[in-house]
Design brief:
Shape of chain B: rod-shaped
Radius of gyration of chain A: 16 Å
Number of helices of chain B: 7
Largest sheet of chain A: 3 strands, antiparallel
Strand order of the largest sheet of chain A: 1-3-2
Shape of chain A: globular
Number of domains of chain A: 1
CATH class of chain A: Mainly Alpha
Helix content of chain A: 40-55%
Distance between the termini of chain B: 34 Å
Strand content of chain A: 5-15%
Number of strands of chain B: 0
Strand content of chain B: under 5%
Helix content of chain B: 55-70%
Radius of gyration of chain B: 23 Å
Oligomer: heterodimer
Order of helices and strands of chain B: HHHHHHH
Chain lengths: ~110, ~160
């Protein structure tokens, strides 16, 4: 059986994170859990890979972070979407839908 | 060069490193607890958590690198050396005396080289930043909520961590 490619396209992880954070502030583990729960086994997202992406997104001011207390009373870093991040999410989502639609059409017709 | 290396280390401090470690450790602890709830043994749960998490050291170093790149003090230094360069240009252009134009040249050189050094440092910090010592390596959290106290084999959190390497 052929191995199914589940690598994420470049920028996709950022889109997933932005979309996840649009629901509200979350810590890294919460983001990972939400993504795993949503994509189920369709995509394989290594938990650790979220963090460099989160730090880069914070560098670009798409998200902001602050330390708080988690449900289990431990200090945790919470991330939230900024105004720039929401704008980015809207743009990326529209772009993704357009590309996805185009590819789907080609696959169905070619 | 040694002076600049020392300066960078002081500016970076260990704060960024500690915060990244704490954040990653929080995630690993919760993953371990999650696996424990699925009836795995503690050791098995921790090994599975580390596997699911990915290359811990690589991820930590990458996060620290990004954090240090954006350190406010580094940004301030960039502005400062930019100012030094502009001052050098102004002195060079408007100074009527020969020896002052030399000063302008030196200021320009210092400004450009320092900015270049800061840029290179952001690109490849391993040349300038020493590896963290053992005392700052990721440790398991010893709060009561986490599964990080001495285990049934009487191993310390650090010993357990080493056994997985």
């Amino acid at each position: 059986m052929a191995k199914v490619r589940t690598d994420l396209m470049q920028g996709t992880l950022e889109l997933l994170i932005l979309k996840t954070l649009s629901r509200g502030p979350m810590h890294g583990y919460g983001i990972a859990q939400r993504i795993h729960a949503t994509v189920d086994d369709l995509l394989k997202v290594e938990d650790g890979s979220l963090y460099p992406a989160l730090y880069r997104m914070e560098e670009r001011r798409w998200i902001a972070s602050e330390w708080g207390v988690s449900d289990n009373n431990r200090r945790a870093k919470f991330y939230r979407l900024t105004k720039a991040g929401r704008k980015r999410l809207d743009g990326e989502q529209a772009n993704w839908e357009r590309v996805s639609l185009a590819i789907t059409r080609i696959l169905k017709t070619a | 060069m040694n002076f600049l290396n020392g300066l960078f280390r002081r500016l970076d401090s260990r704060q960024a490193h500690r915060e990244v470690e704490e954040e990653l450790q929080f995630h690993l602890d919760l993953l371990t607890e999650e696996h424990c709830r699925q009836n795995m043994s503690w050791d098995e749960a921790q090994a599975t958590a580390r596997k699911r998490f990915g290359d811990l050291e690589e991820i930590r170093d990458e996060c620290v690198r990004i954090t240090r790149r954006n350190h406010p003090a580094v940004s301030a230094l960039k502005w400062f050396f930019g100012f030094v360069f502009v001052t050098g240009v102004l002195v060079r252009v408007f100074s009527p005396e020969y020896h002052l134009t030399r000063v302008g040249d030196i200021l320009m050189a210092v400004g450009v080289l320092s900015r270049l050094l800061l840029y290179l440092r952001g690109m490849n910090p391993s040349r300038y930043v020493s590896r963290p010592d053992d005392s700052s390596a990721i440790k398991l959290n010893d709060s009561a909520m986490s599964l990080s106290a001495y285990d049934r084999n009487k191993r310390t959190p650090v010993e357990r961590l080493i056994s997985y390497k």
